[in-house]
Design goal:
single chain, about 110 residues, alpha+beta, four-stranded antiparallel β-sheet, two-stranded antiparallel sheet, 2 helices
Length: about 110
């Protein structure tokens, strides 16, 4: 569970991709309380609390038909996260990929 300073609470799995305020997509398990995420209008949301909780119910993944990286960034509880396509088909350690993602975010914020 992720809580931001504005009171947003996001419950996701450890493996779920999230977009940091640096324009880098990482897995939720890599977040620290020193990180920030982007919200739906490009604002920065500082993380104030991370809590691991066991969950035994159903979880759902959204997988848009498009393979476009920008079209696979979705909004959950007002925060930008990656779709199932990011979760299952992206090498999160690929620095070239991370640069492309930062560029896509910057381009979208300019337009």
């Amino acid at each position: 569970e992720i809580e931001t300073e504005t009171g947003k609470i996001l419950r996701i799995t450890y493996e779920h991709p999230v977009l940091t305020s640096k324009g880098v997509m990482i897995r939720a398990k890599e977040l620290t309380e020193n990180d920030s995420m982007l919200n739906f209008d490009g604002g920065v949301e500082k993380i104030i609390k991370l809590e691991r909780k066991k969950f035994y119910g159903k979880v759902y993944n959204v997988a848009p038909g498009s393979k476009s990286k920008i079209e696979n960034i979705i909004i959950a509880q007002g925060l930008l996260v990656g779709s199932a396509n990011f979760q299952f088909h992206v090498d999160f350690q690929d620095s070239y990929y991370r640069q492309i993602l930062r560029s896509l975010i910057e381009t979208q914020n300019v337009n």
